[in-house]
Amino acid sequence: DIADVGHKYHLDLVLEDVLAKDTTVNCTAEVLYHLGNQNTAPDVQFTLEGELRTTAEADNLFYNQIKSLDKVLVAENIPDSQGSVSPAMEPVHLLAWVASGYVIWQNSTENTKLQLAQIRRVKQVKRSDEYLEFDYLVLLHEMVSQEIIPWQMTVLWHPQHGVQVTQHSCQPQHSLE
Amino acid sequence: HQVLHIVPETFQQVQHLQHLCSTLLLDLWKPFLPQDICVGEDLHIRVPAPLVKEVKDSLDQHMISYKVLIPNVQELVDQSMPRERSSHRQAPEGYVYTEYHPMEEIYQWMIQIQKSYSELVTQHYLGKTVENREMYYLQISQPSDKTKKIVWMDCGIHAREWISPAFCQWFVKEILQNYKSDPKISRFLQNLDLYVLPVLNIDGYMYSWEKERLWRKNRSPHMNSGTCYGTDLNRNFNSSWGSVGVSHNCSSEVFCGSGPESEPETRAVAQFIEQKKSNILCYLTMHSYGQYILTPYGSTTEPPSNSEELMLVAKQAASALVGKYGTSYQVGPTSLILYSNSGSSRDWAHTIGIPFSYTFELRDKGTYGFLLPSNQIQPTCEETM
User: Fold this and answer.
1) Contact: A147, B253; criterion CB under 8 Å
2) CATH superfamily of B2-77
3) pTM for the full model?
4) Distance in Å, alpha carbon of A134 to nearest chain B alpha carbon
């Protein structure tokens, strides 16, 4: 408890690589939730003890695949109702996951627990520069209220420059129809 | 079931045998009628499994010698019927437990499973849903002269939690396929009856298959300004109803309904459990996701009267679970480890006197959430058994 400021949490975490389950990295973090102001994202400081796996090969493969498509990538419902993700869509799913992590961080309070539930729609936006751009409509699940919240996000990505969420906004629920 | 071969030697023996056949309603294969049983003539009787001991004791008592002609009638039946697979009884034929099934298939499955294991399983009507669909539960009960305590398990109270009904089906299959060979299961069934409701929120489940995969509530309509649909059945039970962790607005996912037990699905379950409560030892309700074993209460942090015992059993379950595939479950009261809620079926079951009442939140922890891939059905169900 930090008077007049907010609540600070110290965390000792173990990070597990989703794509390489035996790989773990220890991490310490400090999270400060601001008092009162629900519109500011919590402050996060962290230290990784060790290095993250390099993904250059897989990144470049995905990058080149998308760059060489004749038509823009368009897809819906990832995973599908049965929980399946086609191999071609795996990187698209992972990208959404990373990007929604940012959106979740920006919108978290001590009373929310948000998870990416599903990608409703994703559409690639052609760009003249080297970046890839995807317009996502994702569904976030909030555990406490049990609500499914549609969220639009514009995601930029490049193998060397990483992920950027340039724009994101919460959508009205009936926009799912 | 066994078929016994007897050749009566005296008239007293004939009389005793006729008495036995008519009082126990035994199935005479030869001759057809009790009055045709004669001294010196072959007698073949089929004795159902639960009566075998009693009949043999009675024959021994009266010094009537017998031979076992057919030690296992079912086996013989299986062998003589053309089957694509082995004669090992599988039922229903070809049902794939490692896939998710729509409601129509689950209805069919229940009928088939009762047919294939009729000595143990009976299907019973519980009530109707908002959209007038029939709710059925399966009773797995080994015939016995003593009244047994009951373990009740329901799945699919929330439509989108597909792994839950998948688990109920798996559970039933595991029990029935292994009750003879697995000593733990057979001892369990000697002392307890199992009541399993594979899908509680049938309308919601169907809606999640046909229209909206992430639907949670039932499908009862509410006039708001226009029609809004759905009450959260797990906020609709009569335990501190409407007090905390709910919304009184239909547009919310945790809308508790217009009153406690306002929903026909809730009433169907509550009425049944209320009626049987003095014999119900354990109430289990299966959900996803999160990997928790939750104990009462959600509406207060006040511990239940038997909280130590509740926790002990839950912790034992969690450690058995993690032992299988390393999946860790957190154990504790909902109000402490998750969030506040009122009107849950688990809290209600405990307040009416059912000592062991638990909510299971199955896999996973959010990676796939409600959209758990079907390749995780088997490991999830195996570890939860």
Assistant:
1) yes
2) Metallocarboxypeptidase-like (3.30.70.340)
3) 0.81
4) 21
Find out whether B158 and B216 touch, Cβ atoms under 8 Å.
yes
What digits encode the pLDDT tens for the residues B59-88?
888 888 888 888 878 777 766 655 444 434
Catalytic residues of B: 361
Mutate to test the interface with B, among A14, A17, A18, A82 (most CBs of B within 10 A): A82
Of B232, B339, B369, the CB nearest to A141: B369
Q: What is the residue extent of each domain of chain B?
A: 2-77, 103-208+254-384
Residue B129: closest CA among B264, B270, B232, B34 = B264
The structural domains of chain A, ordered by start, are 6-49 (3.10.450.10), 55-175 (3.10.450.10)
Within 8 A of B253 by CB-CB distance, chain A residues are 145-148
Nearest CB partner across the interface for B373, out of A83, A115, A146: A83
pLDDT, tens digit, 9 for 90 and up, residues A41-77:
999 999 999 988 888 999 999 999 999 999 999 999 9
List the CATH code of the domain at B103-208+254-384.
3.40.630.10
Task: Give per-residue burial for B160-198: e unless 16+ CB within 10 Å, then b.
Answer: bbbbbbbbbbbbbbbbbbebeeeeebeebbeebbbbbbb
* Residue B298 identity: G
CA angle B329, B335, B341 (to 5 degrees): 110
Q: What is the per-residue pLDDT across B88-121, written as a single tens digit (0 to 9) for each?
A: 444 556 899 999 999 999 999 999 999 999 999 9
Contacting residues of B for A117, CB less than 8 Å apart: 214, 369-371
